[in-house]
Amino acid sequence: MNAIAQHALLHSTPLQSGALHIRGLSKAYRIEGQPLPVLESINLDVRPGEFVSIVGASGCGKSTLLRLIVGLEADYDGDILLDGKRIVATSLERGIVFQDHRLFPWMTLSQNIALALKNHPLSAAEKQRLVAEHIALVNLEGFENAYPHQLSGGMAQRAAIARALINKPKVLLLDEPLGALDALTRVRLQHELQRIWVQQRCTVIMVTHDIEEALYLGDRVIVMDAHPGRIKHEIKVDLPHPRDRSSPVLQGYKEQLLEELVGH
Predict the structure, then answer these.
(1) What pTM did the predictor assign?
(2) In what order do the strands lie in the sheet with 230-236?
(3) Position 31 in a domain
(4) Which pLDDT tens digit goes with each residue over 175-220?
(5) By residue range, what is the domain housing residue 65?
(6) What domain count does the chain have?
């Protein structure tokens, strides 16, 4: 693909893509020669542009599910299809953000984000423009030349989100992206994440232990059970974005979700 075609691909009006279909997904690890089931018979459909939150006890396979969707592991039973194509390896169509930002400490914020464009045959000027555009998207203007140790935890996570989005992925996977932040920063970043998603409208799947976060951001909340990991329940959050945290409807969903997670 030449530079002109690549530019057109990155800046064309996005088609309604990013539909994820998971069918009969099971995954087991081998521990001392014995199979240890981690996921069992997972069936899940995610619509293009949908925000899906996944909650559940530690050890229920939430992060393993994300690793399989992003293509970090190919050894599984069943099918994971993105727009009808089976996922067999990593791809720029799927971006991921982890709990720790994973920025390179010897690179500036701009350099860290630009690294995601390394294999794109774009001109230096085009790459610079895209980096600036995504720094603005996550409200980090003025910190282009700052190093990771000069950024707060929330700023570093925003930089990681910008790096994941710069390739215009069909699906953005978030593995506890705000889990290491203090409560106030976490609330602010939830608002930022919602704003970015509403603006970008890519498909998002987020793993979180915070049920308020799951409900505030998600169109649906998937509840997983453990040993082995399987889908136990699903809650459709029928509220428009942006949402009011104090909404009685949201509180009702919270009580319903708590009941599913910890019982009556």
Answers:
(1) 0.87
(2) 94-97, 171-175, 203-207, 51-56, 220-225, 230-236
(3) yes
(4) 998 888 888 888 988 988 898 898 888 899 999 999 999 999 999 9
(5) 15-93+169-262
(6) 1
